[in-house]
Amino acid sequence: RIFGIILVFIYSICFAQEKERLIEYDFGEISQECVVKHNFKLEEIKNGVALCECVQVKVYKEKQNLKNSFYTVEIEFNPQGYKGDTIQDVLRVDEENNWIRLRIKAFVKSK
């Protein structure tokens, strides 16, 4: 029983450091023929993944001053084949291994 309590304690310490931050952008109402883009500004990112082939991601590093670097994460969404409310996520990891979920939303009008 004590071993189980210790195991739960160690597990909570190890995984309590992992956090997720959500940053959203809503394109509003768009047509299926309209490819849309949005730029997110972030500090200190390591890597990431788009969760759908309909989303293209480009990352640009921008030096602000001698101490800080910032990144522009450009997300391009092609809504062809989508209808109604749509949500797409891109996951990024910062320097402290915290997840940053970049979420784009749109209402895609049918043709």
Give the end-to-end Cα distance, rounded to a whole number of Å. Answer: 62 Å
Profile the largest sheet. Answer: 4 strands, mixed
Strand content: over 45%
pLDDT averaged residue by residue: 76
What is the count of β-strands?
Answer: 7
Radius of gyration: 18 Å
Alpha-beta content class: mainly beta
Report the order of strands and helices: HEEEEEEE
Q: What share of residues is helical?
A: 10-25%
Low-confidence stretches: 7-17
**Count of helical segments?**
1
Q: Describe the global form.
A: elongated
Strand ordering within the main sheet: 1-7-6-3
In brief:
This protein has 111 residues and is mostly beta strands. It has one helix at residues 2-16, and strands at residues 20-31, 36-43, 45-50, 55-63, 69-77, 84-94, 99-109.
Q: Any overview of this molecule?
A:
The protein has 1 helix and 7 strands. About 10% of the residues have low confidence. It is elongated, with a radius of gyration of 18 Å. The N and C termini lie far apart (62 Å). It is mainly β and 111 residues long. The strands form 2 sheets. The protein has a 4-stranded mixed β-sheet, with no helix packed on it. A 3-stranded antiparallel β-sheet has the order 2-5-4, with no helix packed on it.
Provide tags for this entry:
111 residues, mainly beta, 4-stranded mixed beta sheet, 3-stranded antiparallel beta sheet, 7 strands, elongated
Summarize the helices and strands and which ones pair or pack.
Elements: H1 2-16, E1 20-31, E2 36-43, E3 45-50, E4 55-63, E5 69-77, E6 84-94, E7 99-109
